[in-house]
Specification:
about 90 residues; 3 helices
């Protein structure tokens, strides 16, 4: 899983906060980071189709990162199609 800038800011802010000991600080960091990741549980994939074969690449933490990865995919033929889609938990 890629680390997001917002997660770095969250942890950096908590590292600067007051804590009685390192164990308490570590617990708070883990709990808040887990809560943020559960809330922001959005992942993106690249779905390709070529001659009846469907393939999925990823997941990527943001749509932007999936788009950057898409530009590096080499198409096996001019008939290949690709799309960026959001993964959804059902």
């Amino acid at each position: 899983m890629a680390i997001k800038r917002t997660e770095i800011k969250l942890v950096a802010g908590l590292l600067e906060s007051e804590a009685e000991d390192t164990g308490e600080l570590a617990t708070r960091i883990i709990e808040e980071l887990d809560a943020k990741r559960a809330k922001d549980d959005t992942q993106w994939v690249i779905v390709t189709q070529w001659e009846g074969i469907v393939a999925m690449y990823g997941p990527y933490p943001t749509e932007n990162r999936a788009g950057k990865a898409l530009t590096s995919l080499a198409a096996p033929s001019p008939g290949m199609t690709a799309a960026i889609r959001q993964l959804r938990t059902v």
